[in-house]
Design a protein that fits this description.
The protein has one domain. 0% of the residues lie in helices and 60% in strands. It has no helices and seven strands. The chain has a seven-stranded antiparallel beta sheet, with no helix packed on it. The N and C termini lie far apart (30 Å). 17% of the residues are buried. The mean pLDDT is 94.
Length: 109
């Protein structure tokens, strides 16, 4: 399970734009990879309450930039399609905490 803040920048003190809420689990015996299904839930502003649904395989260490599919959305993002490019900004090996940059490219009605 995950319920993580999404901020404008890599610092937790940055303005909150939404939350990443969903599920993930191990996807491979041969590499560190996750299968993920989560929603980006926007808070505040014009997109408050709108969501983007993201599904895909996240090869954490194998690729500098990973890509997952945007398969839908709600509110302002109804019928959304596109992709989310993830880049690890930092990773703490002791705590397991990571800061991941999301670049979202979306087409919606």
């Amino acid at each position: 399970m995950m319920d993580e803040p999404l901020t404008e920048g890599p610092n937790l003190g940055s303005a909150l734009v939404g939350r990443a809420e969903g599920l993930y689990g191990s996807a491979s015996k041969e590499e560190v990879a996750l299968v993920m299904a989560f929603n980006i839930v926007f808070v505040g502003g014009d997109y408050n309450g709108s969501t983007l649904a993201i599904v895909g395989r996240n090869t954490i260490y194998s690729s500098e930039v990973r890509e997952m599919a945007i398969v839908g959305g709600t509110g302002k993002f109804r019928f959304a399609r596109g992709y989310d490019r993830l880049t690890t900004y930092s990773f703490n090996t002791t705590s397991g905490d990571a800061v991941v940059e999301h670049n979202v490219f979306v087409v919606h009605h």
